[in-house]
Design brief:
The complex is a heterotrimer of chains A (about 180), B (about 550) and C (about 425). Chain A is α+β, with helices and mostly antiparallel strands. Helix content of chain A is about 25%, strand content about 15%. Residues about 180-185 of chain A have low confidence and may be disordered. Chain B has helices at about 35-40, 90-105, 120-130, 165-175, 205-210, 275, 280-285, 305-320, 335-350, 380-385, 390-405, 425-430, 440-445, 485-495, 505-515, 525-530; strands spanning about 15-20, 25-30, 65, 75, 85, 150, 155, 180-185, 190-195, 215-220, 230-235, 245-250, 255-260, 290-295, 300, 325-330, 355-360, 410, 430-435, 450, 460-465, 470-475, 535. In chain B, helix 9 links the parallel strand 16 (about 325-330) and strand 17. The chains are: A alpha+beta (about 180), B alpha+beta (about 550), C alpha/beta (about 425).
């Protein structure tokens, strides 16, 4: 079967002046010249740093409550929800207060994509995305942040709701352990 | 326009036909509506009903509407009758269920983040399916002790308890140990033990299984893994001759719990605590991962597999050459049928005629599951021709070892030193001692050549229980280190002696065994399925 | 209206609880007559014909209940006397047990004979120390005189009667919980069916009757069904003990034929306690029955009339409330009782009763929110009818009816942040 061609329209042959390239050169020079007098926008990082927006998603960190208790109870929801599987937790039993907590809590920051799912899923408000973005290290091992490091980065975060209040307060805990009484009625 | 009611199917003399949500069902007389609905493929939600326990009817979750009956009825206790018309999803039923869910949750601590049951909790499941999703309860909840040791291995959280009394009924009816009871009344009712009588029966773990919520938790499993990470591998317990059907809950190549798998012909819904914890040995006992040889010096050293097999074969060859009477084998009835079958054939090829299968007995048979015979495959050993476990023959062989009459010994999966049957020095004196085991037993350490085998949970195979039921154990874990299944080790060991058979898998070994052993005729891994099958003539 | 007292005829006489005094006033003549003139089957028919309805609360015809016993079974039959009178506002059985035990005993013997029972149990509430002692003594007297034991009065009929003292749980007044308790277990109601008449005590057919019902059987034995049926109103026959308490001048037990107007009964009890406080409401049948506001109090006190008025005669424990009564407080009190007495077996009652108390406490203390009134009603509707035993209704009915009849007062507790009556009293 014969193939039918399609005609292509080319631009007209350039004029004499255009062939010297001078108009284009001057046009470019003019643009450059103009920018010399405009205000500078380049930020001199790391001497200068960006002000981050409130909803910035940096490295995930663990926080403690006002009493200095690690808020994480090792429920594994962040490990479960984490899309790149960056989180690895081992739980342990605690004999006072809330009975469960993390023995180890590792986040592989090389895997972490700062999506914030962990913060969103956390039922204890124990993990937050910090504003830290400069992630440096000299080995892969260094990029796996353990519980101590994550807690140090997170610090204390005030929470008006004391979810486990009764168990954390010794009087309330003792009352909870008392035999059935009419007091609750 | 109302749907025309479907016609009732014909029912036999011992049967009744009824309609459940317009689905016709025929069931045996006396079947409850809940079971009939199950047969029709409908779930009537329930907490207190358990197929293995008596009917309590106290959770009220299974309320259903029956035509011509004014009040809602509970499906678990109402017998199906001929022509009954049952509805399980009317607005009335839905409101009642929503009410029950709300009632159950008003005094529930809602501490799912720290609760081991989360993920397999009936409260979570039913609240999502039938609940209102919100609570109107704004008052202070009733408080009770949390984390209370109610027994050796069971922890009780009274706040999570919904008083379905399944655990009480288990202890009353199944274990017959009657440790648990309901104390107090009203919303202060609490499950408890009697003073000085903790929940210590040998089946206490089942109370944790039957608990539909997180009130009872199993101490060894507490906080080990969230259940949604666990992969349940159907298998059979190798703790005793019963062979309870189990699920191995694995996560990150480790068994974290063993739970009973319902099999009405073997263990019903239950298993013993010892069996439940039997997986722990794999991580608690020192593991033997690479072949060892003990040349002239006293310390064993790891060597490559090929060399280890060669040296073991050489040791045995020398011993056999010195006289077939001077060589013997002690084989374990804890091995799978496949292992034992290849062992039997390999021993013939090597020329070892003197074989004893070691028995392991402890305690007594009890009223429920526990057997005195702690070997899971004694019937299998007899079936493949190795003979039934016989303490006398083991003793004879070991006496001959001590006296020097036996110069070569192959020990497969047994530990005569650890069992106290022979002093270590006597075995160490043997010119040819080849041991195969999964852990670093004293016998392994005394062996001239020791070959590492897969442990329980790592191997695939079949066990024949005391009733003559062949049941499959599935591999749930990757073998640790360089371990191999016993059948493969023995096939390799016998190859220099002219043993020609090659097996691609345990399944192929089983097929060969089934072809040669009449009691197994026609069986295959496929036909055994997850429930196992009785031997021919058993 | 001239009315000779029948059930309370011996009350106030000296030594009324002794066998001698009872026989002196013609006691045990009825039993002799029954043995002589009837066969057991005929006597069951006689009781049916009398129209005697159970006095325990449900008002089920006693003779019909007896007829439910399966025939031709080779197992023992039991008669359990329900003397676990624990409904708040009810104290009629206690009076009979303490003052005239032989009237009850005669009825027990006649009934046991009629249904073919040779071992009967008298399940008496734990708190009734005195009643249990008196009744035990009456039984011993009866044994000594051949009224119990082998061959009673030469009739060839054997009967043993055992007094069993409960431990004071309200729920053990429910017949199946009573049986569990009697068997030595925790008093938890059983799932019905099977009904006790088929599978009851120790798995055997069992009849459970109230003390007053059995006292009425004595009357039928003495004078016959026709005489009995002439007392009261059609289908609501016989004399009845009414326990009138609350804001009346002379609270107490009053005997009257069924169908007496409620107002007349209040007059018998001396009228209202304080003339300046008019009648506000009446609970006619013990705390578990629905409340009637004063406007609906022109009713006859019998099973059918009260049912038509939307409540029930129950155990005829009638409490009268005057205008000084706070309905929220009254309901809170009722609910505290039920929360304490709920056996804890099934979910709606176990959790619902406690919830009622918490809501009502809030309302009365002034911490209620507008939705609370609706919430009470709605929670009650989810308890009612969804429980194993009638306890669910026993708590749901008062809650529903108090809220329905006095909704404005409940709302006022929310809007005024507390009890208006308590505030008025404080002023």
């Amino acid at each position: 079967m014969p193939v039918k061609g399609m005609p292509v329209r080319r631009p007209q042959t350039p004029g004499l002046l255009s062939t010297t390239y001078l108009p284009s050169i001057f046009k470019g020079m003019w643009i450059t010249l103009r920018h010399i007098f405009r205000p500078k926008v380049t930020m001199q990082y790391p001497e200068e740093k960006w002000t981050l927006p409130d909803n910035y998603r940096g490295l995930p960190v663990l926080v403690k409550d006002d009493d200095g208790r690690t808020k994480c109870v090792a429920c594994f929801l962040c490990e479960y929800v984490c899309p790149p599987k960056a989180i690895t937790i081992q739980a342990r039993e605690i004999t006072t207060g809330v009975e469960k907590g993390p023995r180890t809590f590792d986040i592989n920051m090389l895997r972490c994509i700062m999506c914030g799912y962990c913060e969103e899923v956390c039922p204890e408000q124990a993990i937050f995305l910090s504003k830290t973005y400069n992630l440096v290290g000299v080995s892969r091992e260094q990029m796996i942040f353990d519980k101590e490091k994550l807690l140090e980065m997170g610090g204390v975060r005030h929470d008006p709701i004391r979810k486990w209040g009764r168990l954390l307060d010794p009087v309330g805990a003792a009352r909870a352990a008392a035999p059935a009484s009419e007091a609750g009625r | 326009m109302p749907d025309p009611t479907p016609p009732l199917p014909p029912a036999g003399p011992d049967e009744v036909a009824l309609l459940i949500d317009d689905r016709p069902v025929v069931v045996r007389k006396g079947t409850t509506v809940l079971r009939a609905a199950e047969a029709a493929g409908l779930l009537i939600p329930h907490y207190c009903y358990h197929p293995g326990l008596s009917i309590a009817g106290n959770c009220r979750m299974c309320l259903i509407e029956i035509d011509k009956v004014p009040k809602l009825q509970i499906g678990c206790a109402t017998a199906a009758t001929q022509g009954m018309v049952v509805r399980t999803a009317t607005p009335r039923v839905k409101t009642a269920r929503e009410g029950i869910m709300e009632f159950l949750l008003i005094n529930h601590p809602l501490d799912c983040p720290i609760c081991d049951q989360a993920g397999e909790c009936r409260l979570q499941q039913y609240e999502a399916a039938y609940g209102a999703g919100t609570s109107r309860f704004t008052d202070e909840k009733v408080h009770w002790p949390k984390r209370y040791d109610i027994g050796r291995s069971v922890v009780f959280d009274a706040e999570r308890c919904i008083k379905c009394t399944r655990c009480i009924r288990f202890c009353d009816e199944i274990s017959k140990s009657r440790e648990l009871a309901l104390f107090q009344r009203g919303d202060h009712a609490i499950i408890g033990t009697f003073p000085g009588k903790p929940l210590d029966n040998p089946y206490s773990g089942n109370t944790v299984d039957v608990c539909p919520v997180g009130a009872l938790t199993w101490k060894p499993f507490r906080f080990k893994a969230r259940v949604w990470f666990l992969r349940d591998v159907p298998s059979a317990c190798a703790g005793c001759a019963r062979g309870c059907n189990v699920n191995l809950g694995t996560y990150r190549n480790r068994v974290h719990r063993m739970t009973p798998r319902a099999n009405l012909e073997v263990n019903r819904y239950w298993m013993c605590d010892a069996g439940r914890q039997s997986y722990a040995a794999l991580t608690e006992q020192p593991r033997f991962e690479r072949p060892l040889a003990r040349p002239a010096t006293d310390a064993s050293e790891p060597i490559p597999w090929d060399e280890a097999v060669e040296r073991a074969a050489a040791l045995l060859r020398e011993a056999v050459a010195a006289g077939a009477d001077g060589v013997a084998a002690i084989v374990s009835a804890r091995l799978s049928l496949e292992d034992l079958h290849v062992t039997q054939r390999a021993l013939q090829a090597i020329g070892i005629g003197r074989v004893a299968v070691a028995p392991h007995e402890e305690g007594q048979d009890d009223h429920l599951l526990l057997r005195r015979d702690k070997t899971p495959n004694a019937r299998g050993a007899a079936l493949v021709g190795l003979g039934a476990p016989n303490a006398g023959r083991v003793k004879e062989i070991l006496e001959d070892v001590s006296s020097g009459r036996v110069r070569g010994l192959l020990v497969v999966g047994e530990d005569p030193i650890g069992d106290g049957l022979i002093p270590a020095s006597d075995l160490r004196r043997l010119p040819a001692l080849v041991a195969i085991d999964w852990w670093k037993s004293p016998t392994v350490e005394a062996a001239g050549v020791a070959l590492p085998a897969c442990g329980y949970g790592e191997w695939e195979g079949t066990l024949v229980n005391f009733e003559g039921r062949a049941q499959r154990c599935r591999a749930a874990l990757k073998p640790q280190g360089e371990t191999e299944p016993v059948w493969r080790i023995l096939a390799a060991l016998a190859r220099p002696f002219g043993f020609g058979a090659e097996y691609a898998s345990a399944s192929a070994v089983f097929d060969e065994a089934a072809a040669g052993i009449p009691a197994l005729a026609g069986m295959s891994y496929r036909s055994l399925g997850t429930g196992g099958a009785k031997l021919k003539g058993a | 209206m001239a009315y000779d007292k029948l059930l309370t005829r011996n009350l106030g006489k000296p030594n009324s609880a002794t066998l001698d005094a009872y026989q002196a006033s013609g006691g045990y003549q009825g039993l002799r007559r029954v043995f002589k003139e009837f066969t057991p089957e005929k006597f069951v028919e006689e009781v049916k014909a009398s129209g005697l309805r159970g006095r325990g609360g449900a008002g089920f015809p006693a003779g019909v209940k007896w007829g439910f016993l399966p025939k031709g079974l080779e197992v023992p039959r039991y008669l359990c006397v329900n003397a676990d009178e624990s409904e708040p506002g009810t104290f009629k059985d206690r009076l009979l047990i303490e003052q005239d035990p032989h009237l009850v005993l005669e009825g027990i013997i006649a009934s046991a004979w009629a249904i073919g029972c040779h071992t009967a149990f008298f399940y008496i509430r734990g708190e009734f120390h005195k009643g249990a002692r008196i009744f035990q003594k009456a039984i011993e007297e009866a044994y000594a005189k051949g009224l119990l034991g082998r061959n009673i009065l030469g009739s060839g009929f054997d009967l043993d009667l055992i007094v069993y003292r409960g431990a004071g749980a309200y729920i053990c007044g429910e017949e199946t919980a009573l049986l569990e308790s009697l068997e030595g277990k925790r008093g938890l109601p059983r799932i019905k069916p099977p009904f006790p008449a088929v599978v009851g005590l120790y798995g055997c057919p069992t009849i459970i009757n109230n003390v007053e019902t059995l006292a009425n059987v004595t009357l039928i034995a003495e004078r016959g069904a026709a005489w009995f049926a002439a007392i009261g109103r059609p289908k609501n026959t016989g004399p009845k003990l009414f326990c009138v308490s609350g804001h009346v001048a002379r609270p107490g037990v009053y005997e009257a034929p069924l169908g007496i107007p409620m107002k007349e009964l209040i007059e018998m009890a001396g009228g209202m306690m304080r003339p300046d406080r008019p009648l506000k409401a009446v609970v006619p049948g013990g705390s578990s029955m629905k409340i009637l506001p004063a406007a609906k109090c022109d009713v006859l006190m019998d099973f059918d009339s009260l049912a038509a008025a939307g409540t029930s005669l129950g155990s005829a424990g009638m409490f009268v409330m005057d205008s000084g009564t706070c309905m929220v407080d009254a309901l809170w009190n009722v609910c505290r009782f039920y929360a304490h007495e709920s056996c804890g077996q099934c979910t709606p009652c176990r959790e619902g009763t406690g919830w009622f108390v918490k809501i009502l406490k809030r309302l009365e203390r002034g911490d209620g929110v507008p939705d609370d009134v609706e919430l009470l009603d709605n929670v009650a509707s989810r308890v009612e009818g969804n429980t194993i035993c009638p306890f669910g209704e026993a708590v749901a009915w008062p809650v529903q009816s108090y809220v329905k009849e006095f909704r404005d007062e409940f709302q006022e507790h929310v809007t005024r942040r507390g009890c208006p009556l308590a505030a008025a009293a404080a002023r």
